[in-house]
Amino acid sequence: MKAKDLDRRFDDGEDVTQFLDLSKARRPGHEQKRVNVDFPIWMVESLDREAKRLGVPRQALIKVLVARHLEKTPS
Q1: What is the pLDDT along the chain (75 residues), one digit of tens a residue?
Q2: Into which CATH architecture does domain 35-75 fall?
Q3: Residue 73 DSSP code
């Protein structure tokens, strides 16, 4: 399919996802980079208790806590 045909279908409100290879799709500005952080045991235990209470993985909790802090911090 030519790009102009895909554009027309999209502009007409058609679902064009069947024509896309979403396996390589990326959200700009949301790329990830793995980092390693060492925490004291008491902090890991506290994170684990809070993650369990919320029913989320530890990594998700850490991401939320860091994001909240960074959103409050002026650039």
Answers
A1: 899 999 999 999 999 999 988 888 888 888 889 999 999 999 999 999 999 999 999 999 999 999 999 999 887
A2: Orthogonal Bundle (1.10)
A3: S
